[in-house]
Structures are given as structure tokens and as C-alpha cells.
């Protein structure tokens, strides 16, 4: 019986070690999608690792503009709504509550909104405009 208990304990500990991130540190990889309109308001995700929903806090900027809506969605994703910005690429900077700072150089590109004659297409895509 002691052998079974030891085996179960060892397997449990090994399982915990394998399921943990290699270092437990925060890693920031990229922004998806990596472009949006200059007016802001686009929902984008910052992909990485080591985030802790409910525990990790972050101050995020796109260029010089601070993001107002930040949600740590999972251990590998932060969801944000982009602030307004000037046309062109900007650095995306993340300042975490543990003092670490990450920068994604030219991580997001602001583009002018496309002008179309159909408001439904602008909001809901081509399929909605075709259903007139």
C-alpha cells in the first residue's frame, strides 16, 4: 500500500511540474490582429504566456495612447480595445504590476477606415450589405 501511495504522490508532483510554464515568467509575443482603424475601438488580443487572470494587472499603451479596456482572458491572452491613434505603426508596451515591462516594436498598425456607401457593410461586412 505504501508503494501505491508513493507512486501516486510522485506522479502527482511530476504532473504539476510538467503543467507549469518553464519559468513561470511572463512572456509577450504578438498582437492579433495586428492592425486596426485610427478611430480605435477594435478588439484585439495580446498573445503570450504567464498571465494570471484575476491576479495579473497591466497598463498597456499603443504608441502614446493608454488602453482603457484591458482583460486578462487566460494564461496566454490579454484582450483589449484599441485607443485612437495616428495612421502608421506603433509600439505596443505592456507594464505589469510585478515591475516587468515588455515592448512589441511596431506591434500594431493604425489604418484609415475604408469609406463605403453602405453603412451595413461597414459594421457587419459584405454579406449583410448583400442581403438588402
Characterization of the model:
- By secondary structure, the protein is α+β, with helices and mostly antiparallel strands.
- It has a domain at 25-113: Sandwich (Immunoglobulin-like).
- It is 22% helix and 41% strand.
- The chain contains three helices and nine strands.
- It has a five-stranded mixed sheet, with no helix packed on it. A four-stranded antiparallel sheet has the order 1-3-7-6, with no helix packed on it.
- The longest helix is centred in the N-terminal third of the chain and has 18 residues, at 2-19.
Features:
132 residues; alpha+beta; Immunoglobulin-like; 9 strands; elongated
Order of helices and strands: HEEEEEEEEEHH
Instruction: Give me the secondary-structure category.
Output: alpha+beta
CATH topology of the domain at 25-113, by name, is Immunoglobulin-like
Biggest pleated sheet: 5 strands, mixed
CATH architecture of the domain at 25-113: Sandwich
Instruction: Output the CATH class name of the domain at 25-113.
Output: Mainly Beta
Shape: elongated
CATH superfamily of the domain at 25-113: Immunoglobulins
Share in β-strands: 35-45%
Integer-rounded radius of gyration? 21 Å
How many H/I helices?
Answer: 3
Q: Indicate the low-confidence ranges by residue numbers.
A: 16-23
Q: Ends: how far apart?
A: 73 Å
User: Tally of extended strands?
Assistant: 9
Strands across the major sheet, in which order? 2-9-8-4-5
Question: Whole-number average pLDDT?
Answer: 82
